[in-house]
Amino acid sequence: MTTPLSSEPICVRVNDAARMIGVGRTKLYELIAAGEIETVKLGKATCITTASLHDLVRRQRGAP
């Protein structure tokens, strides 16, 4: 049995990730360096997992 695919992408490029959480590229790279956001290299492209963006927002809100 297959699971229906979500319309949300699994990962996005840096510019899109920054826009999604409302920060600039510099701040996003700071969050990556601090280990707050998970990245995946696909060839030369750095992609950000959308799950890590959701987790970051949850942590910042103090949600369980």
UniProtKB/TrEMBL annotation:
InterPro entries: HTH_17, SinI_DNA-bd
Annotated ranges, domain Helix-turn-helix: 13-61
Gene Ontology molecular function: DNA binding
Superkingdom of this protein's organism: Bacteria
NCBIfam families, per database record: excise
Protein name: Excisionase
Source organism of the structure: Sphingobium yanoikuyae
Lineage of the organism: Bacteria, Pseudomonadati, Pseudomonadota, Alphaproteobacteria, Sphingomonadales
